[in-house]
Design brief:
Length: about 400
């Protein structure tokens, strides 16, 4: 009965006019930003490549965060999250487009990575790593990792969509069976990808925690993006009764939790390197504390952790949708700043040098992912209407 009442009050399908308007807007933004980015490529190829890598790493990590949470919801048998899971799945289904968007990174390896340079073979440290860090294996690993991500994301999404029609419990069990090995696969392959695409920018340095650091940032930006999307749909009149304050409360808990976990991983990585005090390890932080790069420390420490930590801690904050929406947008920005701080000091060694291609690349890459995400909402339900736990989700209350 509760399910029917909520269903009667909520429209689970976007109107064709709404879908078309947003699609056209995204397409226009994509076209304009890619034309501008092409001009940037012609003007300064190296700046283009670094700006593009920041944007690519950002949206790949966000999509991987979505896949991680879809798998976790299945493995834990979560009921509270059913009404937001389809939006998670639609973010997850953007992963295959990474196979196309990684191409500029592959063609830009010489501008990005020191290990592609002729002198790398004479470097006493790099020469020992060239069996792993070379163009051939770089491309092979990218193909394998994106291929595996695409396979698992496609399978989980197709199972969920099939369940819309049949409502079978077998769909839930199938998703669980795929999610168990999928989580292991995700951690291994995403760590390898983060080592290749980001950590090897400074190939003399390494950190065994870097993969978790990269994934945590992606999970945090995903949760922030999910909250922002839910609130945008709510403001447009969709899912007001299906995603209620109770659900936003739990989404806020996750945003708070991931903020803390990101800080824990970031601090642990710094503390262990500081304590070890080995030149080959401390060089990474030394580069990012040079010149005006040091000014990003307080931004990341306070903006990425302390301020959202204290503001989001109270129960009331997580149920205040305006406040929650603000901090969702804020954490989306903070993840970009974090990746910018990780990547750009390789290019601009003396300090921060913001270039117009930085935001344009982010918009260009993001608009492509946005178009793929939005295409999954055309004439399809916004929530998993066939999930056996839907009624339980609609009746969910926080303790």
């Amino acid at each position: 009965m509760a399910h029917k009442e909520h269903q009667a009050n909520d429209n689970y399908f976007l109107s064709p006019a709404t879908w078309t308007t947003v699609r056209n807007s995204l397409a226009f933004v994509a076209l304009a930003s890619w034309i501008a980015l092409a001009a940037g490529y012609a003007l300064d190829r190296q700046q283009f490549t670094f700006s593009y890598l920041v944007a690519f790493a950002y949206f790949v990590s966000l999509a991987l965060g979505a896949m991680f949470y879809v798998m976790i919801q299945h493995l834990t048998g979560s009921a509270w999250s059913v009404t937001v899971r389809r939006l998670m799945e639609n973010i997850m289904r953007t992963i295959p487009v990474s196979a196309l968007l990684v191409i500029p990174v592959i063609f830009g390896t010489h501008q990005l990575y020191e290990w592609t340079h002729a002198g790398a073979a004479n470097d006493p440290v790099l020469s020992k790593k060239l069996g792993y860090l070379n163009n051939e294996w770089f491309i092979i690993r990218a193909a394998i990792t994106i291929g595996l991500w695409s396979l698992f994301s496609w399978r989980l999404y197709s199972v969920s969509r099939s369940q819309d029609a049949n409502g079978s419990i077998e769909g839930t069990r199938t998703a669980e069976r795929w999610s168990a090995p999928g989580v292991v696969m995700l951690f291994v392959t995403a760590s390898l990808a983060s080592f290749d695409w980001v950590m090897s920018l400074d190939p003399h340095w390494w950190s065994t925690m870097f993969g978790v650091y990269f994934l945590t940032g992606g999970a945090l930006s995903f949760m922030a993006a999910l909250i922002a999307i839910c609130l945008a749909l709510r403001s447009a009149g969709y899912l007001k009764n299906s995603i209620r304050d109770e659900h936003y409360h739990d989404l806020g808990k996750w945003l708070f939790c991931l903020t803390v976990f990101w800080a824990y991983i970031a601090f642990s990585q710094y503390m262990l390197i500081w304590y070890g005090n080995l030149p080959e390890e401390t060089t990474w932080f030394h580069r990012r504390l040079a010149g005006s790069w040091s000014s990003m420390r307080p931004l990341l420490v306070f903006g990425h952790f302390f301020v959202p930590f204290f503001v989001l801690m109270p129960r009331a904050s997580k149920r205040n949708l305006k406040l929650l929406g603000f901090f969702a947008g804020w954490m989306i920005l903070m993840h970009y700043c974090d990746l910018y701080w990780q990547i750009m000091p390789i290019l601009h060694t003396k300090g921060i040098a913001v270039n117009w291609m930085d935001p344009v690349a982010w918009i260009a890459v993001g608009s492509v992912y946005g178009l793929v995400f939005w295409s999954g909402l055309k004439e399809k339900p916004l929530i998993p209407v066939g999930d056996p736990r839907l009624e339980q989700c609609l009746a969910f209350h926080n303790v």
